[in-house]
Each structure stands twice: as structure tokens, then as C-alpha cells.
Amino acid sequence: MSANIQQWTVEKPWLETHCLLGEGPFYEESSGSLRFVDIRNKRLHYVKVAEGPPSLKTIQLDVCPTVTANIAGVDPQERIAVGVKYGLAVLDVEKETYELIQPFEEPVNERLRSNDGGVDPLGRFWLAKRCTNIRTLSTYSTLHLLFIKSDILDLGAVYLMDAKSREVKLPNMTIPNTPGWSPDGKTLYVTHSNAREIYAFDFDIESGEISNKRVFYNHDGSGEPDGFRVDVDGFLWQAVYGEGRVIRIDPSTAKIVGEIKVPTKNTTCVHFVGTELVITTAEDDEGEGSSRKNGGHVFKVDVGIRGLRLNDFKL
User: Is 226 a catalytic residue?
Assistant: First the structure.
């Protein structure tokens, strides 16, 4: 690692949550709470940041939640938007019940689920879907990939959704991941995890149209880029699944300028709480020692810069 790259090392977890697949961290400014999901356990967790682990509470659902967003004009302690297995839903936080407001398709496809998502500057929800039973393609042989390609590898997509409509914006993907925007809202980034690439698009804020697709960043490590957030200077903080780290990427050069190391391999996503970066992880049931012990826990570290506030969904 270059001496010019800023480095942080996190030795202990902040929350020992034992998530099977921790994901989707989101900070509620109004309540001072961090919420995040455990996709495989079908759980939504909340913790008061100022109080820490003793304040942890959990909502158990009957469907996997994958990503959440605040709804414009609605108290997030009452209702939030949530990506679930079949599409976009609204969760009644108090009743712990949800209503599916826009499915990916009808009838629903049991082999698919939502993955990650984000809300654009005008409040439209961009939600990814992927095949349920693929985590990382690095575990498959070339022969196996050839066999399954026509069956499931191109079923993933990114949708533009609200309660009234849905539109496929990026079809024929395998594991599409976080959509996120530059500070001026004119560039959309989307991670394609199994391709180990982050795409960039010119983004028309008013229409929601995307153009000029290009590969912004190509990852040459053994892991796969998973979820990310953008800071106020436009740099991407990208979790790398399988490498136990988060990398900070310069938007003008696509070079790595920072790295956070955590003591478990499967880093999944990040989120800013002030100048602290919260990092979610997944279990490492095939690992050993520290990585296995700390898999599924939540970490945080002060990186000295703030992130962009995520947009509210206009229901």
C-alpha cells in the first residue's frame, strides 16, 4: 500500500450483532439512531448512537429487508421506505408491519430479491434486484459459471420506482449494488459487485435519465466492491467484500487514497454519522480466528470528514 494512502485500523467492533448479512446502515438525524438490516435473518436493527450497545433493539420481519430510506415529510420513527424481497415497501415502524407498494414484477419471482438502493436528488427510489442464492462469483468455477449463466446471471437489474410506477434502468446485471450520487447530483455511481466494477453515468436530475456509461473504477483485488457512500468532497468510501477493508476513491482519478482495515473479511456497507464512518459486515463462517469471531459485527471509526446526507423518498 502506497505511503500516500491514508490508513485507519479498527481492532474491535462497536456492536457485536452477529449478523448473517449486515447491510444498509442509515443514520436518523431526528432520533440520533442508526438503523441497519440483517438480510438473511430478516431483521431491522436500531441503536441510539450516543448510548451504544445497550440501546440496541430489533424488529423481526417475515421477509428480508435490504435497504431503507426516510420518507419526505414523515417521522422515520413512524414509517420508512424499505427494500424487501419482492420490491419496494413502506414499513410501519411502530406496528412492525409493511405494505409492498411496488413489486419488481408480477407475479413475483421467488428466485430474486432486492439488494441495495438509494434515493436520487428529486426523491425517486433506485432499487437493485439480484438472484437470491449467489453471494460471490469467486466461489464458482469457470465451468459452473458457463452452466448457470443463461439461467440466473443476467436476472439482476436496477429499477427506478415509486408507488405508481417502475422502470428498469439497468438490465442484465448479476449483483448490482449501491447507487449513489456526486455532490452536485450530476453523476450517478452504481456498483456491479461480481464484475468488480463501479460504473459512472451522466445523470439528468430533472428527468432521471442516465447516459454516457463508463467504468469509473475497476477493482483488481480478490474481493468484490459492495456498498458505498459519498463524502462531502465527492470521494467514494467503498466496502470491499472479502478483503476486510473499506477504500476511499478519488472521484477525479479513480485512485485509492484511503483505507480502513477491520478484523473480519466480509465488509458490506458504510454510512457516515458526523465524521465517524460506520461499517457493517457479514458472517465469515469459513474463516478462522479474528475474522470468524468478528463476522457480522458493526464497526466505526472517525475519518475526519462528513458524508453527503441521503435523500428522502417522495412517496
Answer: yes
